[in-house]
Amino acid sequence: MYKILVVDDEVRIRSIIKKYAEFEGHTVYEAGDGMEAVHLCRNNEFDIIIMDIMMPELDGFSACREIRKNSETPIIMLSARGEEYDKINGFELGIDDYVVKPFSPKELMLRIEAVMKRVKANYTDARQTNVVVELDGGGLRADITARLVFVDGNRVEMSPKEYDLFFYMLENRNIALSREKLISEVWGYDFYGDVRTLDTHIKLLRKSLGRYAEYIVTLRGVGYRFEG
Hints:
Rossmann fold, 2 domains, five-stranded parallel sheet, globular
């Protein structure tokens, strides 16, 4: 069972999430705005955070940015807006999933379980993997064990899911990977998000890789291939 922090300025939303989460056996803590959430995260450890975007004092994006300075706790973002900009902004900050209001509490519980399952699997894989990949004479270097990426000698910061996607494509380079394959392997078979989430992360990954973005080739009607 998980220790969950629910951050939303609407008491009704917090109550609904708390009701369903406690029914599943989880322990729930609440915060009414981003500032309160940041303070709670500085003094407590949570397994996962459910964070609204539009809040007083400190919005969800700003709160996430502060929390990410000291913690890699998984974050699911809630929003009444569904624009791609919000999703890209959130994923760049390192959130793990994105849920648009109104949402089904049961679906949210499934998403929590899916995110936590992926986090545990990624942790196990990282401990069992000892691989360093260098391309273009070392211009692009990836240390999968340490989860570090260097472009022309400069360390590149990526969101957790960008790292997962990049490392998976590296390990399967020169192989055509369908969108369904990438989603199932990187996000999991129980992924409940929008399939466009993959395309958004590909855009972010290409941006992070700079001049090496061309290594990621789009296969129209199929998916992607990392050539290197």
